[in-house]
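As described in the Methods, two query proteins were run sequentially through the folding procedure within a single session, without resetting any intermediate state between them. The first query and its resulting structure tokens are shown here.
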Amino acid sequence: MSTNLVLKQTLRFVLLVLLQVLIFNNIRFLGYVNPMLFIWFVIALPTGVNRSVTLLLAFLMGTLIDIFSNTPGMYAFATVFVAFIRKDLLLLFVPKDVYADYEPSVKVLGLPIFLKYVACMVILLHLILFSLEAFSFQHYWLVLLKTGVNSVITILLVLSTQKFK
């Protein structure tokens, strides 16, 4: 990776962690809405980044958010899981004619493919996170409600970060 790309990703990492812990974690609209824009970092990582580095960065991001959110390992686990499955989701949704090293975005993938990719990543993240939070099958309706509401908000936030051209 070039120095410019490393600097860009480092800045994005720091900015998203700060936004998540200082702003988004403090939004509790109706007790259900808690946008999780930090996942955009994992979503938008270039595909040329080694899977081990991706998992390490996801773990670091999740751990930092866990520390500031007082959630013991929930964000770290959910973020690492989504980062682990990321490459397989890209292989599933992205046509083979897209060049090998790219940064997933609406501009590169097109809106339908990017939306499917982002929706899967975000829904998985929320489902894992809220399942760990409830830690019971007794509240599965609440888990599904929180997953649905937060996924829609987070997907809209991720899409708002894209430059439509």
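Immediately afterward, the second query was submitted; its sequence and tokens are:
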Amino acid sequence: MNIMVAYYSWQGHTRQVAEMLAEKLDAQLVVIEAVKESSVPVEALKAFFGMKSDIKSCKTDLKEVDHLLLATPVWARHSPAYLNKYISLLSNTSGKSYSVMAEMRSKGADITIEQIQKKMAKKQMKLLITGITLEKEVNSGEFEKTVSKMVEYLKENI
């Protein structure tokens, strides 16, 4: 199985989670990078209103990918504008599966995941599993259990 982990990270928390997921799944890692980042309040507003912001070129064609795992921070209970742009650029998605790992400070992951599900359904993709890590768990290194549960599930179900 060809698995790809795509992530956007603002302060590095989501990066740590995505890197561990990719390592444990022996997956390709794709970094979603902003062309130009704005201030936190501006980015939070963009997320809240479901906007998209330009990203640097990265792999968005899923032709050779069997499963996509999106790792994202939660901003204002929404996905960042950079992840929204990435999803809009995805191609060769029909019938493929995906998962979501949301990293948050305190709350909003359920709403973020629901919004991502709606966007991915328009791409005709099927959700397999979701996971949530907290910023404090990433800071303390206690997120490995959450990652391992997701990895175990994916290895059994892809």
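The first strand starts at residue 3 and ends at 7. We note this only descriptively and draw no conclusion about the first query from it.
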